[in-house]
Amino acid sequence: MISARLQRTLSSVGLHAVLLTGVLISAFPFYYMFALGTQNAADMFHWPPPLGTGQGLAHNFKVLNGSIPFFHSMWNSTLVAVSHTALVLLFCSLAGFAFAMYRFPGRQKLFTFLLSTMMIPGFVGIVPWFLMMRKFGWYNNHLALIVPGIANAFGIFWMRQYIGSSVPRDLMDAARIDGCPEWAIFWRVVFPLLSPALGALGIMTFMGSWNSYMHPLLVLSDRTKFTLPVALATMRGNPAQGYDQAVLLLGTALATLPVLAVFLAASKKFMAGLTQGAIKE
Questions:
Q1: Rounded to an integer, what distance in angstroms lies between the CA atom of residue 246 and that of residue 43?
Q2: For residue 53, which of 256, 253, 258, 261 has the smallest C-alpha distance?
Q3: 92, 148, 211, 228: which sits with the fewest CB atoms below 10 Å from its CB?
Q4: Is 227 helix (H, G, I), strand (E, B) or coil?
Q5: 155 in Cβ contact with 92 (< 8 Å)
Q6: How do residues 162-195 score in pLDDT, each as one tens digit?
Q7: Whether the predicted pLDDT of 281 surpasses 50
Q8: Is the preceding omega at residue 48 within 30 degrees of 0, hence cis?
Q9: Cα–Cα distances in Å, from 209 out to 111, 114, 255?
Q10: What DSSP state is assigned to residue 186?
Q11: Environment class of residue 179 by beta-carbon count within 10 Å: exposed (0-12), middle (13-18) or buried (19+)?
């Protein structure tokens, strides 16, 4: 008979094999996108398809940087995504703190109304959003991509649920007894405890802002202000003239690197934010 220790070892090896297989399957599209980005345009369509990297990386990058201002567009995307994410974390944590820790008239009705806005598809309000940006003088301005949505319903709901379930009220009462004002209670007592929730919300917000295509396409007309998704889309040019798919794939692969870096840097906070809080009111 197989001993209990051997059974545990075989079970652990099998579990790790399944997990490793899942990781390889998930990572393969990213690797293959980069691998095709290093191929020459003609080599991409050979059969069987090439699985390794090619010799065209330097040439493709030169064509990419000559077709669009790649690094300038990446800076635009970084500026928009980082600024928007920072403001979302600030305002959503403040609003979530207020809903979770204070009792004021109309609190529950206001929160219910806030949640109901999550049921409205985003594209329904895209025309009013565009008209408002024109009215504010933010057309062809990055403010149109940074400011709207900094106090969004999902972010407030996320922070309110986490604060309500993870921050003891006794901790706040003790700070009040020590003479700490409400604003200082939030910054000195509550905010340091929110890192898991802030990490998860920050990653989701950064990814959404970085990958946003429709809103920058509508509101930006100056090529020097294009974010990276819009700049990459302009490479397709006239469909009748065709475009270099290998160069476009290389640009797309490079555009995913900042998102992967942010996720890897905050992955522990992201997983902790998903598994903690958001359980009880």
A1: 9
A2: 253
A3: 211
A4: coil
A5: yes
A6: 998 888 888 888 888 888 888 888 888 888 888 8
A7: no
A8: yes
A9: 25, 21, 13
A10: I
A11: exposed
Whole-prediction pTM value?
0.83
Angle made by CA atoms 178, 182, 188, in degrees to the nearest 5: 70
Whether 211 contacts 260, CB under 8 Å: no
Contacts of residue 193, defined as CB under 8 A and 6 or more positions apart, other chains included, come to 166, 167
**Confidence (pLDDT) at 270:** 61
SS3 content of the chain, % helix, strand, coil (to 5): 75, 0, 25
Residue type, 182: E
Query: Are residues 107 and 98 in contact, defined by beta-carbon separation less than 8 angstroms?
Result: no
| Spatial CA neighbour of 245 closest among 254, 237, 236, 256 | 236
For residue 31, the tally of other CB atoms under 10 A from its CB is: 13
Residue with the two structure tokens 């109901």: 116
- Both tokens of 7, joined, read 């059974």
Instruction: Pull the structure tokens for residue 214.
Output: 């429709």
Task: State the Cα–Cα distance between residues 268 and 69, nearest whole angstrom.
Answer: 34
Distance CA 57, CA 60 (A): 5
pLDDT greater than 80 at residue 280: no
Q: Which two tokens stand for residue 229?
A: 């998704």
What is the residue extent of each domain of the chain? 1-58, 68-275
Scan for tokens 């992955």, then name that residue: 267
Helices 57-67, 70-101: crossing angle, 10 deg rounding? 80
CATH class of this structure's domain 68-275: mainly alpha
